Amino acid sequence: MGSGSLTFVHAADLHLDSQFKGLERAVSGDGRMPDCVLRRLRNSSFDAFSNIVDLCIDKKVDFLLLAGDIYDVADKSLRAQLRFRDGLARLADAGIPAFVVHGNHDHCSGWRAEIKLPDTVHIFSDKDVESRPVVRDGREIASVSGISYPGRAVVENYSSRFARGAGTPFAIALLHCNVGGIEGHENYAPCRLDDLLRKGFDYWALGHVHNRAILNPAGPCVAYPGCPQGRHPRETGEKGCLLVRVTENSDVAVEFFSTAPVRWESVAVSIEGIADDLTLLENIEDKLFRFRAAAGGKPIVARVLLNGRGSLHKNLVRASYAENLVQELRSRLPAAEEDFLWLDSVRVATSAEVDKNELADTDTLLGDFLSLVKKGRVNQDLKAELRKTLAALIEHPRAGRYLTVPDDDELGELLEAAGDLAVDLLWDGEE
Q1: Rounded to 5 degrees, what angle do the CA atoms 236, 237, 242 make?
Q2: Which Gene Ontology terms cover its molecular function (predicted)?
C-alpha cells in the first residue's frame, strides 16, 4: 500500500536547559570564561530546538519526530517546558504535528508543570507501545508507533513490543534505545539491529546515542540523528537532525542538517619542527581560526592537544606553562557573544626527542617501565587489570563524579602519557 511522497524531520536528545555546570564554575576573573560566552552556551539547547522548528517550517515537512531526552533532567525546569511548548506552538501554527517519546533523562516519573501542549502534539505513553496515524488531506500517509520511559533505567528490550499494523502505508517506530551496546551510553532498552529489522517497519527513528549514525540505510532505514547541540567538550563537530524524504514507492533519502549554534572542537597541534614559543602560539591561533572558518563562522569552544616530539617539550612541561599559554591565547581570540572562539584548555601530551621503542629495550628501570607500557597497549589481560585498578578511583564518591571508565583509545592515551612522563622523570639524556 503506497503512502505517497512525504517528508519529516527526525531529532532526538534535545536536553533542553543543559546547565554546563563545569563551565559555570569557571566564570570569574583571571581570564576565565566571560559571562556572555556562558550565557550563549546556556541558551544553546533552546536555540538548537528553535533551529529544528525553523527547518520543519522552511521545508514544509509533514511532521516532526522527537526520539527522547527532550529535557536534560527528569524534574524538568519550568523554563525548558515553556520553551518546548513555544516551539511546538510554532509548528502547530504551520500545521505540522509532532510525535514525542521521553527517554531516560526526562522519563515520565519526573515532575512536569501543568502546561497544555497544542492538539497537534502526541506524547507517547509509558505503559505500552501506541500507534498514531499521520493524516494529510483526509488520507493516512504514515503511522508512528512509540513508547516513553516510565523511569530512568529501562532494561527491557522495548523493540519486542513493536508490531506493524495491517494496511499501514509507511510505518515508523520511535524509540529511545541502545542498539548493539554502543559504548559511551547507558545500555537502556537494549536491542540488536536484527531485532529492529525483522519487525517490518519502514523507518526506525532512534534516540539516546549522541553521535549521528545510520545503522541501516534502507529496508528499513535505522537512524540515530545524534544530539542537536553538543553538551560537553567530548561531543565535538557538527550536531543536528535528519530531514527524511520518502518517495511514493517508500524509498527513503536521509539528509543531515546542522542545528547547533555552538560547536565544541578538539584541535591537535604538533610541536614537531617548531623551534620557538611564538611560532607555537601563532600555529595554535591559526589552526583555531581555520576550524572556525570550516564551521561557517559559528562560535566555538575548543580544547587544544599539543602532541608530537620536539625541542619545545622541555618548555611545555614547566609548571604553569600551559596555563600561561591559555591566558595569552584567550587574550588574542574573539570573545563577543555572537562570534566567540573560546579556548577551554590546553593539554600537553608532547614528548622529548627520544626513541621510546629503543629505550624500552634497555636494561634499565625506565626500559622496564616502557616495555610494560607497550605490553599494556595490546595485552587484554593487562588492560583488564589496569581497568580494575582504575575502578577504585572511578567509584570513589567524590572523585568518581569527574571520571569515567576509559575506552580502549583513552586507555591507550593514558598509557602513552605515562610513558612520556616516565621519560621526562627518569631519562638522563644520555645513550
Answers
A1: 115
A2: exonuclease activity
For residue 410, give every residue at least 6 positions away whose Cβ sits within 8 Å of its Cβ, in sequence order, or none.
Answer: none
- What CATH number does residue 18 fall under? 3.60.21.10
- Judgement on whether residues 322 and 368 belong to the same structural domain of the protein: no
Q: What phi, psi does 283 have (nearest 5°)? A: -65, -45
Q: Is 87 helix (H, G, I), strand (E, B) or coil?
A: helix
Model confidence over 202-248: pLDDT tens digits?
A: 999 999 999 999 999 878 999 999 999 999 888 999 999 999 999 99
Cell output for 45:
539547547
**275 lies in which domain range?**
262-353
Domain boundary among 353, 378, 400: 353
User: Does residue 1 form part of some domain?
Assistant: no
What are the grid coordinates assigned to 126, written together?
509509558
DSSP state of 226: -
391 has a pLDDT exceeding 60: yes
Report pLDDT for 192. 97
Burial label for 128, CB within 10 Å (0-12, 13-18, 19+), is: exposed
Q: In 3D, which of 67, 55, 116 has the Cα closest to residue 257?
A: 55
Share of the chain above pLDDT 70, in %: 95
Q: Note whether 340 and 422 are same-domain residues.
A: no
Q: Distance between CA 288 and CA 334 in Å, rounded?
A: 11
**Beta carbons of 139 and 243 less than 8 angstroms apart:** no
Secondary-structure breakdown of the chain: helix, strand, coil percentages, each rounded to the nearest 5: 35, 25, 45
